[in-house]
Design goal:
The chain is mainly alpha-helical and 276 residues long. The protein has eleven helices and two strands. Helices cover 58% and strands 5% of the residues. α3 runs antiparallel to α5, α3 crosses α7 and α5 packs across α7.
Amino acid sequence: MRKRGLAAICIDPRRLRALTKTMPIKNDRNDARAIAGCLRVGWFSIVHVKSDESQEIRMLLCNRRTLQTKQIDIENEIRGTLRFRHQARRSHNLGLRARSRADREHASPGGHGETDADRPSGSSTACAVLHKMMLDMVRKDETCRQLMTIPGVGAITAVTYLTTIDDPARFERSRDVGAHLGLTPKKYASGEVDRNSGISKCGDVAMRSTPYQASLALLTRSTKNSGIRAWGLAVAKRRGFRRTVVAVARKLAIVMHRVWADGTEYHWESKAATAN
């Protein structure tokens, strides 16, 4: 519709659903009247429509995550079965495929040589292919390389952030990205009650979990000092480690947006990196 010159927008269906739930009779005519009423009074929010390239990359990430999850489930199932069968022999130092090979040799005398079970499964091969395709995209994309200069941000975090935000210009302030990803606390204020609770968890689940994992790796596994890590360790002393991981994840999302919007690289020794 936009290519034909029409002013087409996509509105948030959650607000419209809250209005249509009060209608005693729901049909197409009443739905059209409710949409027209929302547009007339301005009680709607426009949802950003991602580009075709971002949707294709996001589909690749979803396929990779699905195969990786299924592969882990299968390996855990096999590991549990082998542990049950070998608990009397206490072969805890053997790997998964070594246990499987030892089990077959024990079951059949003279059983040597590699079988199909020793070779990588189809799911692991497909996951490796998708992972390589994703890495090739990251190497060719300049924005992803800029985002990966930020401490804790790797290829998965960069490409996931790229496909989720899609256009940094749609956020007037970088700190709005934290609320968009659901990394800011909820607030309930009514009468004399005014309290804050956990994070809202709005937006994309995959994007919210990705900076959380990056934040966890930055605080626990990173050995290079940076402004974000120093800020997070200082917060951990006051607020605890669990809250600090979420706070650092929010800060990473904000810094990534600023780096993307400015077209610059992250300065490890910059004091601006520790600003709120």
